[in-house]
Design goal:
This protein is α/β, with parallel strands linked by helices. It has helices spanning about 25-35, 55, 80-85, 95-105, 195-210, 230-240, 240-250, 270-285, 300-315, 320-325, 395, 410, 445-465, 475-490, 520-530, and strands spanning about 15-20, 40-45, 115, 120-125, 130-135, 140-150, 170-175, 190, 210-215, 220-225, 340, 350-355, 365, 370, 375-380, 380-385, 400, 430, 470-475, 540. It binds 3-acetylpyridine adenine dinucleotide.
């Protein structure tokens, strides 16, 4: 059968392609590039008006990547990674968006991307072996294959707080930030939430605003970024051996090149441990947790790192009561570790007030204030930094129906299940990029995305060469993989903390551990083995 682009269709309002991709973030963009290379007709459909996905939407002040720029970038084309110049150790959102736009230009991607189009349904027609995707505006697009490149953190989570909609001033969600700069000068501002987005945006907002009230439900651990302009010598050295650095990164659990000790925290003296944590604190960034191999396995080991950071918080924050409120009690690394610039020190500012709403939640929001602790905190601007309906939210927002009309929403009503985070039984010819059950959010997302896109593209080439029309995960293989994902989660400490990894941040969401914590290298080997075994666990027809 032909896999070339179909142009003729009996339904006037439909356009038909070999592959329809939903989302034009880094995943959808690279997917399109690979599909073109296979000679397949592809259409990418994107809700936003531009490329970049998460970096298109999350424009809040202070937004930047907490994986270093030299690693948070594509590696599929050496010319691209040699040409592009990052300016800082950690890139800012505007620079990453500029990079995404440059990639779109360089590979002429926009001509096959339909912007401002939000997909609301994707239905599989078994007889015709094709997917029909419907957009909110009524447009329909048909593909033999459908690839969901919808992102792990793309559906904003709004808090259920009485009166939220009654606030008369501007309300901004960090994940839906306006394209124009927001000026907080002279304003009284409230921010709800203290996750990564809040921890990045609180310092710059505090510098501008007349007053900032931070409503904290759970404090988070944050490590200094020590962001700085990139040293041209260091860039030259990395570029001289870029592929070697990329290869090293692929051998690490999070897919990030860095130093990771395998030893146990309690196997060394307290003085040695202190020196190691101090060295990593001075170095900054997420690899702080690479200090010892058992930090996410042993509570006693984890306590040593958590105590170290709590001591740092107490040393930075001048008011002992405020410092205490900022000290997390849960394990470090249970919720995602944050990386900041001046976060804790911001609480030394006279214009910043921390309000602990853990035991006494926000009562309501009125037209002019956040009401908590029996008092009205009068404000002009409200910032919502309450995160995302992670990993499943974007897929569940689409009415996805597979073989026999089976609904993904119903299938996942008690929590997701997937074969490798790539495909699901009863949903033939549907792929998810970095779906639940893949390492995704525990890794550097760019290489993880590339690995999934390459796997899908190679699979389509394999099918093309052998004239297969459909591929579908087998139920047994999916179940075995999902059981493995859960078993791995249960061996460590990650699943012991309420976090968005297990849906705990969204009221009513089933508590199921969603990402795969078995590490990037082992996961890649598994994917390769499945291919070597003739797509074991998949039915091809
Ligand atoms: O969201 P979050 P985020 N009343 O879910 C609180 C990635 N990211 O947008 O912990 C009061 O982490 C909630 O409290 P609690 C990164 O993977 C990356 O900050 O549920 N508070 C929490 O404090 C990150 O992990 C980058 O008790 C309420 C906060 O809101 C992920 O995105 C930058 C509440 C939400 O924190 C999500 O980060 C930014 C309520 N009703 C994000 N409901 C970089 O790479 C929720 N909260 C740099």
């Amino acid at each position: 059968m032909s896999y070339r682009m179909e142009t003729e269709t009996s339904l006037v309002s439909e356009r038909a392609f070999d592959v329809v991709v939903v989302g034009a973030g880094f995943a959808g963009m690279y997917m399109l590039h690979r599909l073109r290379g296979l000679g397949l007709g592809a259409r990418v459909i994107e809700a936003g008006s531009g490329v970049g996905g998460t970096w298109y939407w999350n424009r809040y002040p202070g937004a930047r990547c907490d994986v270093e720029s030299m690693q948070y970038s594509y590696q599929f084309d050496d010319a691209l990674q040699q040409e592009w110049e990052w300016s800082e150790r950690y890139s800012s959102q505007p620079e990453i968006l500029e990079y995404a736009e440059r990639v779109a230009d360089r590979y002429d991607l926009r001509s096959d991307i339909e912007f401002d189009t939000c997909i609301v349904a994707a239905h599989y027609d078994e007889a015709a072996s094709r997917w029909t995707l419907a957009a909110r505006n009524g447009a329909k697009t048909v593909g033999r294959f459908c690839v969901m490149a919808t992102g792990c953190l793309s559906v904003p989570n709004w808090p259920k707080i009485a009166g939220l909609e009654t606030f008369a001033g501007p309300t901004y969600h960090t994940a839906l930030w306006p394209h124009e700069a927001v000026d907080f000068t002279g304003k009284r501002v409230a921010i709800i939430g203290t996750g990564s987005s809040a921890i990045q945006s609180i310092p710059p907002i505090a510098r501008q605003a007349a007053r900032l009230y931070v409503f904290q439900r759970t404090p988070n651990y944050s490590i200094p970024a020590h962001n700085e302009p990139l040293d041209p010598e260091r860039v030259r050295a990395i570029k001289a051996e870029y592929s070697a650095m990329r290869a090293r990164a692929k051998t690490t659990h999070p897919g990030i090149d860095g130093s990771y000790n395998k030893g146990e925290a309690l196997a060394v003296t307290p003085e040695e441990r202190q020196a190691e944590y101090e060295r990593r604190w001075r170095e900054g960034g997420l690899t702080f947790l690479g200090a010892y191999g058992d930090l996410m396995l042993s509570k006693a080991s984890n306590d040593t790192a958590a105590d170290f950071v709590r001591e740092k918080i107490r040393a930075i924050v001048e008011d002992p009561q405020v410092a205490q409120t900022l000290c997390p009690e849960n394990i470090i690394g249970g919720k995602r570790l944050c990386v900041d610039t001046d976060y804790y020190a911001t609480y030394n500012r006279e214009n910043v007030t921390l309000i602990d709403v853990k035991d006494r939640p926000i009562e309501e929001i009125t037209a002019t204030a956040v009401r908590a602790h029996g008092r009205d905190f009068e404000i002009d601007v409200l910032v919502i930094a309450t995160g995302f309906d992670a990993m499943t939210g974007a897929l569940m927002n689409i009415d996805i129906r597979g073989r026999g009309g089976v609904s993904l929403r119903q299938r996942w009503a008690e929590g997701p299940s997937s074969y490798l985070g790539l495909a699901m039984a009863d949903f033939p010819n549907l792929f998810t990029i970095t779906g639940p059950g893949s390492p995704s959010v525990f890794t550097n997302m760019l290489p993880t995305i590339e690995q999934h896109v390459d796997w899908i593209a190679d699979c389509l080439a394999y099918m093309q060469a052998r004239n297969y029309a459909t591929i579908e995960a087998e139920g047994d293989a999916e179940k075995a993989w999902w059981d493995h994902v859960q078993a791995v989660a249960a061996t460590g400490l990650k699943a012991t903390t309420d976090s968005w990894y297990l849906g705990a941040n969204v009221p009513g969401k089933p508590r199921v551990f969603m990402p795969y914590f078995g590490g990037f290298p082992g996961y890649c080997r598994k994917c390769e083995q499945i291919v070597a075994d003739g797509y074991a666990g998949f039915a091809l027809a």
